[in-house]
UniProtKB/TrEMBL annotation:
GO terms for molecular function: phosphatidylcholine lysophospholipase activity. This is Lysophospholipase L1-like esterase. Residues 2-177 form the SGNH hydrolase-type esterase domain. Signal peptide: none annotated.
Length: 197
């Protein structure tokens, strides 16, 4: 199961015959051999509050062993309240985390520098928000034993081919690369956890 915004939804990826997006989650499913199993609740424009209110209850009721959460970009860019943002992220991950479940996520890559048409003053504000958000996510990763794909420092994210013209969403190639990296990371973590049993 995947919760989140349009990044989770797969926007920017190739479009399926039914109009849905074949984003990075589709790639993860394929590489993990679970195609068609992951329910993707990601939706365009969703904020952390939307996930808390609408998506998290569905995820908790479904009791899935593998859950992804990709959300926060809309909070940071358009609807930012730092206290609410932190509170919602903590609520989401505290609700999902448990020893028999793998919860995966990513940090927020350098979106501010890719957004077209922004004045430099706005980019400076957004850079600060994104940096603070990533610092807070680091704390949650350690506290709740989350599996986080590091998109801040991944060399692939600096390649313009990775991104759609809007600067926010991965391109089809970007979704494929992110999906491959995430599937590899999930496999690696699963192997380590099994070896520790």
């Amino acid at each position: 199961m995947v919760l989140g915004d349009s990044f989770a939804e797969g926007r920017g990826g190739s479009v399926n015959a039914d109009g849905s997006f074949a984003g990075f989650v589709t790639r993860v499913e394929h590489l993990l051999g679970i195609s068609g199993v992951i329910l993707n609740l990601g939706s365009y424009g969703a904020t952390t509050q939307d996930v808390v209110d609408r998506q998290l209850p569905v995820a908790l009721a479904a009791d899935a062993p593998l859950i992804g959460v990709i959300v926060g970009g809309n909070d940071l860019v358009t609807d930012y309240d730092p206290d609410r943002f932190r509170r919602n992220l903590r609520h989401i991950y505290a609700g999902l985390a448990r020893p028999d479940r793998l919860v995966f996520t990513t940090n927020w890559p350098n979106i501010p520098d890719r957004l077209p048409g922004l004045p430099e003053s706005a980019r400076t504000v957004l850079r600060s928000r994104f940096a603070q958000a990533n610092d807070y996510l680091d704390d949650l990763v350690h506290e709740f034993d989350l599996v986080r794909l590091d998109l801040v420092n991944a060399p692939i994210t600096a390649d313009p081919v990775m991104w759609s013209p809007d600067g926010m969403h991965p391109s089809p190639a970007g979704h494929q690369l992110i999906g491959t990296a995430m599937a590899d990371l999930i496999d690696e973590v699963r192997t380590v956890r099994v070896s520790q049993l």
